[in-house]
Structure formats: structure tokens, C-alpha cells
Design a protein that fits this description.
The chain is α/β, with parallel strands linked by helices. The chain has helices at about 15-25, 40-45, 45-65, 80-90, 90-105, 155, 175-185, 205-215, 310-320, 350-355, 375, 405-420, 425; strands spanning about 1-10, 30-35, 105-110, 110-115, 120, 125-135, 140, 165-170, 190-195, 220-225, 230-235, 235-240, 245-250, 250-255, 260, 275, 280, 295, 335-340, 345-350, 360-370, 385-390, 395-405. Helix 1 (about 15-25) packs parallel to helix 9 (about 310-320), helix 3 runs antiparallel to helix 4 and helix 3 packs across helix 7 (about 175-185).
């Protein structure tokens, strides 16, 4: 039996942030990973997705500038794009494990399972730790329909050797909308199917509708309030059937409706860790119902977005918590969320729906940016921002943005909100002009 101060189950960004932080504080740390070292984000998530999206965004900018200085729209070479993605991802697992070994952090590869006495079995190894951190994340969820076994997931999409001429995406959340944008730009006929009329529910509905309109204009077949009930092989393709009896044939069908916490193999019942369908229940110190077991990242049942930077933030928090007496409860800053594509949707801070329900406290500036210089010069076809302002403080406290540059704008606003800058502070700052940052002075 090997003994450690801290045992971390999950070698993704959150678990690694805690591992390196705790190791630097003198803790004897072990990290356990059953799949790919590095976790979902760099192997099968945000990083490879953004490599594919780089070509999509470049194509989108080129399309917008046709007749405005550019001639000819570049076409996406799927094989070359996938090769670029793999050149990055293939190095992640060995690089991650090598980093742990170089730092002197013990690492174990295999499926982890708690024992009744609180120790952990990993393959043929028995591990013990004063405290544990569970950082196993989430994995794609397969819906219970006829032909479930024929469905692919985002993991498969991000490693396709060849993109079919026609694909079906079952679920229009973050994953479905982004994969639709990639496949559509690469020339595939895309059916984006969602079970109700309100996809991307966490975002401003007006801007979601605008985004869906842009996808439709680009040729995406969006089917809302539609339930897929069956998928079945049809020669070398698949037949998709809905609850209303509608059918169509598609090259591949992907389940893109949500993710589920990775908990099945851990046997948390043996160590009295409470869970829900959304993950591990924790208190304000990320401590589970077993006070020697903590959890962070996507495996936690919490209202904050399931995003890589949030997991890293929690990993750094636990570094402090597990090495400091009487540490305070975790306090999250404002957290930006972005849906990527040729047109990006982003938001952070006070949601517009909350601001609308409290007109005595908040003002919403709904601005059409399409003809503002920053967007006109790149011929952004539809740019819009809703800025939430606290009336009493005269400070921006939230925003929702739709444009080809939304990811940049939302990060500028993140800095403004996080540092509680008022409009006087913004106006007192001279920024490079003309830039997206210099537009901040006009948002109030």
C-alpha cells in the first residue's frame, strides 16, 4: 500500500492544477487517470475544437469580405485540418504524464475504485491518502432511443478521418451548435435537432434566435421541438426517425444533448459520498459528504458553467484550502461563456432575463453594432450586444454579445466587471484606436 497526503482522481486541467499547486506546497501527491492524460479539454474538447474552428472562422471572415477587397472563398480541406488537430492532440497524453514525472508527482494509469476502508484500488495498486480530490469530469451522454448503439459522440466527430456529406446532430446545446458550425463550413449538410423550442437556454433568447437565423442562412437544417426516437442502419448510411414519424437518411448521427458525470467505477457509496444526477454534492469548500473527499470541475453538481477555466480555478482554490487553516468558502468571479462559430455568442455577469425582471435596478442597452466601424470594416453581417448596467453604481455588470468578434469583446468586459470599473474609469483610459477595446466607451 502506497500512502500520500493527497490523492487526485482525474488527470485533466482541474486535477492537474491542484496536483502541481499542492506539490509546490510540499504535499506528497498522487494523480490517477483511467483514460487520456490531460483530460477532455486538450484531447477531445475545447482545444481540438478550436483548432478546427480556426479554419471555420477564417472562412467566415473571407465570406464577409467578398466584394470588399477579397475574391474567392477558401474551402476547408478536412483531411489537412484533421492532421493539424492530431499533430496537437497526439502529444498531449505523453506530454502531460511526462510533466508529472519530471515534477516528481506520482501518477497511476487505470480505473480507480474506492474500498470500504477509504483506500483506493487502481489496477493492481492499493493507494491511501489523508484526503482525496475527485476530478473525473464528464463524458458524452447517449440518449435512450432505439438504435442507441449507432450514435456517435463529439469524441468521434473531433477525430473523423472523413466528414460525411450529411450528418445529424441530436441536441442544440454548446456542443451541437458548435459542431454544426464546423460541419456546415466544411461542406456537410447538417440537421441540427433539438427536443424543445429553447436551445442554449442559459443565453439571451433574442441573441440565440439571431444565431439560429445565421445558421439557417448558412444552410443548416434546424429542427426545433423535435424528438428523435430511433436510428437504424440503411445500407451504408442511417435512417433517423422522429416522434412524429418524420424520417431522413444521414451519413452519421451524433448524440450532442448533454454530458454526464464520470462516477460509475468509483463506488462512492462505499465511502458515503452523496451524488445527484448532475454530479457530486459539495459544500462551499468543495467538500463532499465525506469530509476527507473533495471534488472539483465538471463532476461537481453546482450552478457554475462546466468550463475548463472553472475547473482550474477550483484546483487553485483547493490548493489553498488543503494547505491553509480556516479557509473561506469559494467565491467565483464572473464567468464568461462562449459558443464558437463564424458567428459567436457570448455572455457573462448579470443575465439579461434577470435585468428585465428588475428594471428598478438595472438598465439594458440593446445595441445594433452592425454598422459600428469595428464591425463594418470586416463586414460582420449581424453584430449585436446587450449591456446590463447597474443604475445606482453606473457600472456594467453583465453583457450578451453576438458577433464574429464576441469572444474578444466578452473578455474585455470580463476585465471591466471583475475590476468593478465604472464608466468614468473606462473613459479615463486611452486605448488603441480603432479597436474592439476602444468601443467600450460607447457601451453605456
Amino acid at each position: 500500500m502506497q500512502a500520500f497526503d493527497i490523492g487526485i482522481i482525474g488527470g485533466g486541467p482541474g486535477g492537474l492544477a491542484a496536483a502541481y499547486g499542492l506539490h509546490a506546497r510540499g504535499m506528497n501527491v498522487a494523480v490517477v487517470e483511467k483514460d487520456l492524460w490531460g483530460g477532455t479539454c486538450p484531447n477531445r474538447g475545447c482545444d481540438p475544437k478550436k483548432i478546427l474552428m480556426a479554419a471555420v472562422e477564417a472562412q467566415g471572415h473571407s465570406e464577409a469580405l467578398q466584394g470588399h477587397g477579397l475574391t474567392g472563398i477558401p474551402q476547408i480541406d478536412w483531411s489537412a485540418l484533421m492532421a493539424a488537430k492530431r499533430a496537437y492532440t497526439e502529444k498531449i497524453p505523453s506530454g502531460t504524464q511526462g510533466g508529472l514525472e519530471a515534477a516528481g508527482i506520482a501518477n497511476f494509469h487505470g480505473t480507480a475504485s474506492f474500498n470500504d476502508d477509504g483506500t483506493l484500488t487502481v489496477g493492481g495498486e492499493q493507494l491511501n491518502a489523508a484526503n482525496w480530490i475527485i476530478a473525473t469530469g464528464q463524458e458524452p451522454r447517449l440518449p435512450k432511443i432505439d438504435g442507441q448503439e449507432w450514435l456517435r459522440t463529439s469524441n468521434d466527430f473531433l477525430d473523423l478521418d472523413k466528414l460525411p456529406q450529411d450528418i445529424t446532430l441530436m441536441g442544440a446545446g454548446f456542443v451541437g451548435v458548435e459542431l454544426a458550425a464546423i460541419a456546415n463550413a466544411a461542406g456537410s449538410r447538417v440537421h441540427l435537432v433539438h427536443h424543445n423550442t429553447r436551445p442554449l437556454r442559459a443565453f439571451d433568447q433574442d441573441l440565440v434566435n439571431d444565431l439560429l437565423d445565421r445558421l439557417r442562412e448558412n444552410g443548416v437544417d434546424i429542427k426545433l421541438d423535435t424528438d428523435i426516437t430511433a436510428v437504424a442502419p440503411a445500407d451504408d448510411q442511417y435512417q433517423v426517425t422522429t416522434a412524429t414519424g418524420e424520417t431522413w437518411t444521414t451519413g452519421l448521427a451524433f448524440a450532442t444533448a448533454g454530458r454526464t458525470p464520470v462516477l460509475a467505477d468509483l463506488h462512492l457509496d462505499r465511502v458515503d459520498v452523496a451524488t445527484t444526477a448532475h454530479g457530486i454534492t459539495v459544500n462551499g469548500r468543495l467538500q463532499s459528504s465525506n469530509h476527507h473527499i473533495f471534488a472539483l470541475g465538471d463532476v461537481v453538481d453546482r450552478p457554475q458553467p462546466k468550463l475548463t477555466p472553472v475547473a482550474g480555478f477550483e484546483g487553485r482554490y483547493l490548493t489553498e484550502t488543503l494547505t491553509t487553516c480556516d479557509s473561506p468558502a469559494i467565491q467565483y468571479p464572473v464567468i464568461p461563456a462562449v459558443v464558437y462559430g463564424k458567428t459567436q455568442l457570448a455572455q457573462l455577469g448579470v443575465p439579461t432575463v434577470q435585468a428585465e425582471s428588475q428594471p428598478e435596478k438595472y438598465m439594458i442597452n440593446d445595441l445594433d453594432l452592425t454598422h459600428w466601424y469595428s464591425y463594418q470594416r470586416i463586414q460582420d453581417p449581424h453584430a449585436r450586444i446587450k449591456v446590463v448596467v447597474d443604475k445606482a453604481a453606473n457600472k456594467i455588470v453583465g453583457a450578451a454579445v453576438l458577433s464574429s468578434e464576441a469572444e474578444q469583446v466578452i473578455n474585455y468586459l470580463d476585465f471591466v466587471i471583475s475590476n468593478q470599473l465604472g464608466m468614468d474609469d473606462i473613459n479615463a483610459t486611452i486605448m488603441a484606436y480603432p479597436t474592439l477595446a476602444s468601443d467600450l466607451t460607447y457601451f453605456n
